[in-house]
Amino acid sequence: MRKIISKKTGAKIVVMLLTLLVVLSIWPFRVWTDVKEYSAGGEYVGATEQNASFERSYLQNFITQYDRLSSIDVYISEMATGKYIMAQVLDENYTEVLRVVVDTDEYEIPGFVNIPMELNVEVGKNYSLVLKDCRSMYKIGLEDLNGEAGYVGSLFCAGQEIPARHFYANYNYRVPMPKSFSMIAILIALVVAITAFTIIELFFKKYPEKNTISTVEKALRFIANPVAAVFFATLMIMVFPLKMFDSRVIDIIFYELGLIICAGIVFYGINHRVVTHKLGISFWDGIPDKNKVVYVLQMLMIAMAIWYASEYMNGLYDIFHTLSQRRMEICLLLLILLTFSFKEVFNVFNLIWLVASVIWSIGYYGQNKLPVSDKEYDIRNLALRYFIVIIILAGFVVIGVVRPLIHGMISNIRNKKPFFRTNYSLTVFGWISIAFFACLVVFRNTRTWGVFMVLIFGALFIRMLMWRGRPDWYKILSGGLMLNFAISLGFSLLHRYFAGYMLGRFGFIFHTVTVTAEYFTAMGAAATVMLAIKVISFPKNSSRIELFKTAWKEIVLFGWIMSYSLFTVSRTTYVAIVACIFAVVIVVISFHKKQFGRIFCTMVLSVLVCFPAAFTMQRIIPTMIAEPVHYEIDDTDVQIRGGADWDNTNFMCVERFVKLFGHKILGLDWEGYNYPNDSDNYDKDGNPVLDIYGYPMQGAITLPEPVGGYLVSNGFTRAELLILTEELGGYVDMDNKLDVISGGRITIFKSYFKELNLTGHDVMGAELPTGEIAVHAHNVYLQVAYDNGIITGILFILLILGALIYGVVLYKKNINTNPLSLMVFAITIGFAAAGISEWVFHLCNPLTVALMLSFGGMIFKEKRYE
Description:
Elements: E1 4-6, H1 7-26, E2 33-39, E3 44-47, E4 58-63, E5 68-81, E6 84-90, E7 96-103, E8 111-120, E9 126-133, E10 137-144, E11 152-157, E12 160-161, E13 165-167, E14 169-176, H2 179-206, E15 213-215, H3 216-239, H4 249-271, H5 289-314, H6 318-337, H7 342-345, H8 348-368, H9 377-414, H10 428-442, H11 449-466, H12 473-495, H13 513-536, H14 544-567, H15 571-591, H16 596-625, H17 654-664, H18 718-729, H19 737-741, H20 745-754, E16 766-767, E17 773-774, H21 780-788, H22 790-813, H23 823-834, H24 846-854
Antiparallel strand pairs: 1-15, 2-14, 3-10, 4-9, 4-11, 5-8, 5-10, 5-14, 6-7, 6-9, 10-13, 11-12, 16-17
Helix pairs in contact: 1-2, 1-3, 3-4, 4-16, 5-6, 5-12, 5-24, 6-9, 6-11, 8-9, 9-11, 10-22, 12-13, 12-16, 13-14, 13-15, 13-16, 13-23, 13-24, 14-16, 15-23, 21-22, 22-23, 23-24
């Protein structure tokens, strides 16, 4: 970044980067698209005989032609009452995937009304368009059948097929630009770049005195500053005065504040002067330049391992669990292999294994791959290929780990020393770990993931014994965790809508808030340690401005992670993270007196400043990109799927979040959020002014309405009702207040405790008093004891206690040279706290992966054979 270059070179770098951005936007990102229209080609034959109304809706089947349904233009012949039409899209299983309400006042009736969708669909699948009322009645244009229009299916009204007719409509698909046009655009960009290069050469040839010295950093700033300025200025104008995201004053002010804060962070990041830190303060400082490339790759493997562990938690079927687990195992094996030097990797033993394993893998795959005729042959063959890769990588790991051990034993024999004599020894924690791992294998019952955990992490721990980079392990781990958060945050900003409904609790990259809580416990632990040690390393008499200059990255990171933790509105998240922060701060100030005030104030200000920025970006950016990812059991409001209107009030807003937080966390009896965004159907209090048929309410017919069936947003949703019904009407002991508060966990704990034994159980699930089966114990300590036996459960508790104690000891030993070793204690305390109310110990749980990786520096006292 600080490399000295001439201004001519800097100008060329600017041109190259701008050209690269243009080319990448054309391909492979394909930002520029076109809309392709499909029409059935029949002739208009009139309107439906009866109105679409409260009693009657119309359903049209159609086959999708491309993977992005942009919109559908439907001919509306007459609006008898009201002004809105409601459209639903159903998938092949007739499950609602999108709901759109359109104001027909914007169109000339009779005429075509555009129903915007921007919905990702599966090509060639049967979907249905349903047109129904929204306190209105209207007639829909029909056309006759055209033999060439095979993509249009049957038309139904109130369950009865209307023969030889379908909607008079156009189906619009968003498609990438044609390849020929893309090639032309890329060639034009290259020609412009070559022309700019020529102009630069001629300019500095004519004015050589202007070709002074500059740096790469200045060249990049020359690009980044105007791009950032245009980006944030555009967003601020869109918020106000255009009011494209919300029209309420409090939301406009809050979003503008968030954008100002976010812009300030970005501009400071672009233009700040780099401050040199002391050794060991961050995961990057103090690392020798020769190791940085390898360490970055190791950080990437940690990040991707946690990513695939997260993917596992989102999976609903065994095959997807298998794929995610094997991907994660490949990343962890690559992490181990990246600890080997060039000489350790390229040797005759590995060469022999490579040749033998490749020959074996070709034969094995040929014998076991499924034919095309089998169900799910493609993903099952993919899982088979992953298995083969794991075997090959595991072979390299075994060779790399075993060879030095054998070499040391042979050396002992030659020197007439005891066969197993070494200059290293296990710590007490190491002995506990071995005992626990042994029980995990012996009492595995039907579970294989425990065996895989022992093999993979056992190999990692042994390898770290002989690895010269072991002192930098916690820097690598910190970097890997933060890199994973950066990747996950990018995915969230691109693909996860911040919905106010159905639950209103933001799941980040997960389909359940519970797993989100576990994830943020690990990330929050890492961020807490990184910020705390940065603060205490700063001179006490220094100004707050200097503290910010030194620790601004850690401050922003901590604030952003804690803000997303707040978005979950999850008590598990809050308890685990608060316990982690409190414990870390106590440990830190016990060695650094009179630092509590500085640490506490820095953390609080970090969250206060970053919360509006994080809230605003998560609310705005995904809605603009309109590429949402919804999980199968992710009960997201169907009114904000696809390319929902940016100002749809079913997105999260300030009022909804405040009331949700107050109700669920503070227990305040606040009224439900009720914002009428349709003054034609509802008055200022949210009461309907039209009846269900679109007539004025005086003397009108009123019936109970389903939740979400109208434009006004609701404070109590179907998903919340189902959860409340399950928790309070199922197995909860209503006479036990603690059981009610905990959602029935006390009852579950008792049921699991009664069935504990020495050897464990083959099948998960304990029987509740009602006869139902609780799938898991909602407590990690009970779950381990139930699955693997009481002995294993006791060893597991000792393992956690040992990690807490030895984590503090490790930090004390390395307090001046490697304070990031406090990461062990922080992650363990977060795991221990989250484990009280949730089952968090599994090979593919992100929190477990982080925990096991943190144990890497605590198993052995020393390393290396004599």
